[in-house]
Amino acid sequence: MQSPFHSQKHLTSSPCAAIQTDLPHITIIPSIVPVIGIQLHKAKLKLKAGQRAELTATVLPSQASNQEIIWTCMNPHIVEIHTEKQKATVIGKQAGRAVIIVTTAEGKFRDLCIVHVQPYMTKPK
């Protein structure tokens, strides 16, 4: 007589070909790192008319997924800017003060640099 608490199990072996192959498909999505700020490497810049200088912007954190930035010059008659991604070449055009603003495409974080352009002097008197 068998005990009511004892059950009989029959184990069968199956060949490798019978292993279940319809497992759920898992897709790994890369994590998105949000922008938390932006920083220009210079807050002030002094130039003479005709002189060039470089500005560099860094999106924070450096691993942020969206590194796109927008450069803006508030006084384009004072300075001219030529941009390429995180770098800008600033050229003094005439004496005065200009503000260059860099803005992140994501989050709208901003930083600025005040540029003072001095007149070009060939011979001081």
From TrEMBL:
InterPro entries linked: Big_2, Invasin/intimin_cell_adhesion
Gene3D superfamilies: 2.60.40.1080
One Pfam family of this chain: Big_2
Superkingdom as given in the UniProt entry: Bacteria
BIG2 domain segment(s): 34-114
Name this polypeptide is given: Ig-like domain-containing protein
Species the sequence originates in: Bacillus bruguierae
